[in-house]
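Internal ticket #5521
Category: modeling
Description: The requester needs a full-assembly model to guide mutagenesis choices. All entity lines are attached below as received. Residue total reported by intake: 566.
Assigned to: D.W.
Attached entities:
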Amino acid sequence: MTTRQRIQDRQQRLATHLCVGLDPDPALMPPALEIEDFCVAVMEATAPFACAFKPNVAFFEACGWQGWKALEVVCQAARGLDVPLILDAKRGDIGSTARRYAEAILGRLGADALTVSPYLGADAVTPFLEYNKDALSYVLCATSNPSGIEFQGSSDEGEVSESRSSDRLSARAEDAPSAGPLYLRVARMAAGLSRSFGNVGLVVGATRPEAMAAVRNAAPGLAWLVPGVGAQGGDLAAVAQQGPGDVVFNVSRGILYARTDGEFAAAAAAAAKGWRDAFNDRR
Amino acid sequence: MTTRQRIQDRQQRLATHLCVGLDPDPALMPPALEIEDFCVAVMEATAPFACAFKPNVAFFEACGWQGWKALEVVCQAARGLDVPLILDAKRGDIGSTARRYAEAILGRLGADALTVSPYLGADAVTPFLEYNKDALSYVLCATSNPSGIEFQGSSDEGEVSESRSSDRLSARAEDAPSAGPLYLRVARMAAGLSRSFGNVGLVVGATRPEAMAAVRNAAPGLAWLVPGVGAQGGDLAAVAQQGPGDVVFNVSRGILYARTDGEFAAAAAAAAKGWRDAFNDRR
């Protein structure tokens, strides 16, 4: 089974589109706990409500080589729980170097999926697609952070800030493949790679509801990973209604740090269940 | 001293603008050598000809946590040799996560500089600038890989493929700060951050001589890191003549793998000396 099929299978069996983000920060965690023990406890508690887990590499690298070793433990635990693991790495480098990142993330760590940056063009994405045909590479498209629009939204049409412009642009997209804001050109690049490789997805922020219809038109059928729900204030209803049928939405801090005492795992499970239901209620 | 001052000081004392790239690939290295031992031997041999070293994180991560531990050894060796260390990480994530990457790279590893991706806008760059005012963050601008131009060159003016368009665009840049190809808008963003923080540089590929004049006009006074010389066929004369006075050009494979037997370190030193001289001859 491909990663996408595994995610879909879990979405159907457990009726959940929630991805639990693993951003272990010692400053926020219960004291005297190793980051891998914290993550594994959260994973075990939230697995029944999660279609995927998403560790963000930054939080592991910040702990040095011990952090990287902890990340290996987390990846292994996901395999033990049979939950697809998306490594949030946002890597992007030239071809020969991208191959080494693919080896690190899809090979050594054995992740099922990862996030990649499109700034260097298709060269920087293709090595991940070639490395493992079953894995899934989510290309950063319209990101959830406030300054994401800065370059992603820029085009000869100016910034896209309301759904009317979005509709207009999505109509244009079919006529003029090189036109429109950067995030739509990235979406079309990803769609092209998907036609060749079949294992490409997109990162579309929940804080960017105005972009969603246009992205779906520009790259029909691609899987989405949606950050920005929860602490970042994204629009869960827009994700549920405008995302593709197998959309995956991520919540990190709202689950990990629901409580920061000895009850953190039970609180994380309750928060995960709440997010699962909140999404399902909005479908 | 800031990282930029340390690089300039070394450029003047040793008359070299060469940065030695450290991309240790076990498939290309002399057999039965650990990657950290290989890198340290190359660093010791080439230090007299180098104004900086640049390990690319991908090659270390591909070796798992042992690779990250090797990277810590390499960073420590650079400090021992008192050679500025630029970590080629191309990181780019939202603010709170970027702070963890800053902790990983400028904190834990103690790198003097790093490369960052601008796809997520200023949010993703600023945490590195704030973390250490003396460190240097090189923002990816016009990268050296063939598909770099795919998005970086796109604008309402179309792709920039000859110096005439470049001159025209650089003239426009002063009139209309949001116009021109993406790499010029990135250069202007970096210039703006540099006015606030003073510790921003740019990555400009040696394979993109047509972009150089426009980038310099858009971001006057910023430091440059120039990859793409050597295996990628970049234009060394253009770098020497069009880069800023303290430009740093990087060569990796042409030095690391000059010989792949027991004489690799001496061969690396000879190759480094050759590249140093080749650049100086073209100034």
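Resolution: model delivered.
Comment from assignee: Residues 64-81 of chain B form the longest helix (18 residues).
Ticket closed.
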